[in-house]
Amino acid sequence: MNAGKIKESFPFFTAHPSMVYLDNSATTQKPQAVIDVLNKYIVEENANAGRSSYTLSSRLSRRIEKVREKVADFIGAETSEVAFTAGATDSFHKAILSLGFSYLKDGDEVLYALDDHKSFVSAWFQLRDTLARNGTRITLIPYSRRQNGDADIEDIHRKTTLQTKIIAITHLHNTYGADSDVHLLKDLREKGIIVFVDATQSIGHMKVDVKELGADIMAFSGHKMFASPGSGVLFVDKELQTKLIPLFVGGGEGSWVSAASSKVEFVNFCRALESGTLNYPAILSLDPAISFINMIGLDEIEAHLGSLTVQLIQGLGKIPGVVFPPGPKYWTCLGGYGIVAFSVEGVNSAEIGYALDQENIMVRTGLFCRADEKDTRIDGLIRVSVHIYNTEDDIKNFLSAIGRLARNPC
Ligand SMILES: Cc1ncc(COP(=O)(O)O)c(C=O)c1O
Asked: pLDDT tens-digit profile of 253-278?
């Protein structure tokens, strides 16, 4: 695979030829094919889907359904199990609100990890506190993480009780870069516990298949897999959908108010959530983004990310003062999906971020929205996250810059 050649399909890198962009976990750059779809929609195709009888509107509705087929195929789901949302955070909230108000009962428990992304964790906290105001008490029980960065599946099993209704788990962690063995929760799922997966960092980095993972609910953002910001996906298993009431409803084709029954009726849970005018260009951009990933192939992507991760870990390991948090340091075999966090002893991570910026190298610093960032005693970290267009030279440039900064802190 020629990452340098792939870079050429990203106009961002033509605009910034010498930039070393290593913040792909925050968002990816967009290939020309994605930009073309966005432009074409705004310039030539703008209409409101599913509401009007003219060709432009009905054509847009059909295209959205084609994108739905493509997304469903990409994650091993059925089309009726896919809802378009504004992104992972939006997906979490839409699903969690509905679970809270139409599924969970007083005394129920939800297992989660306190160092997962704030978007995921805080949605559960808000739900718990809002339910409590109305007299329904649910308990959020944190499970631990192993030193290699994985969610501790044994701890999840230990903490599961008859009251456990949901396990919230992140597939690929945004700080530790480790992929959790979500499939090892299948026995709990068979007992009726809902497995709710945050696939925001794994999508586009490895094969993500809802059936293989054993996910009942799964959420991710399009902008981290080459599509436009404002695109997101919520997968909900079709059996589970029949037990949930969508709490986000409105105009569109997914739901209607029935005067006869004085109720909101809906096609299915996922479609009802697509209420109001959607971000059509963003949804359409998922199509070329998935085509781009498929054209390269997830195996190729995984192999490339794995080899850059090894280069990063080995290179960083040789720099005096570099310290890894849980994750790479404890991996038993080298590999990974392109996310490596570390700190440099005695040097503030933000200062390193500013210094790297001066050298045209973009990385993320801080604690990357981990839910417990205010309480944790971990100092800020530096996170390098690579994707398919990053080259060995990008990593070499980054490593020599960090080497210099570690020797001569600013
Ligand atoms: C693991 C994880 N979950 C959720 C999110 C939230 O994604 P978004 O801001 O696109 O909604 C992020 C963003 O970085 C993430 O890394």
From this structure: 788 888 888 888 888 999 999 999 99
Nearest residue CA, atom 13 of ligand 1? Answer: 26
Token duo for residue 42: 């705004």
Residue whose CB lies within 8 A of the most ligand 1 atoms, among 28, 92, 117, for a mutation test = 117
Alpha carbons within 13 angstroms on the beta-carbon side of residue 118 total 9
What average pLDDT does this structure show over 26-53?
Answer: 94
Give the closest residue (by CA) to ligand 1 atom 14: 26
CATH number for the domain formed by residue range(s) 34-292: 3.40.640.10
pLDDT tens, residue by residue, 214-233:
999 999 999 999 999 999 99
Q: What are the extents of the domains in the chain?
A: 3-22+297-405, 34-292
For ligand 1, mutation pick of 217, 233, 369 (most atoms within 8 Å of CB): 369
**Spacing, Cα 16 to ligand 1 middle (Å):** 25
- In terms of Cβ atoms closer than 10 Å to its own Cβ (0-12, 13-18, 19+), residue 98 is buried
Q: Please, what is the end-to-end C-alpha distance for the chain in angstroms?
A: 37
Fold match between 3-22+297-405 and 34-292?
no
Considering the four listed CATH numbers 3.30.980.10, 3.10.580.10, 3.30.450.20, 3.90.1150.10, the one that applies to the domain covering 3-22+297-405 is 3.90.1150.10
What distance in Å separates the CA atoms of residue 160 and residue 348, rounded to the nearest whole number?
A: 40
CA–centroid distance, residue 54 to ligand 1 (Å):
37
| Mean pLDDT across 296-303 | 96
Q: Quote the pTM value.
A: 0.95
Looking from the CA of residue 26, the nearest atom of ligand 1 is 14
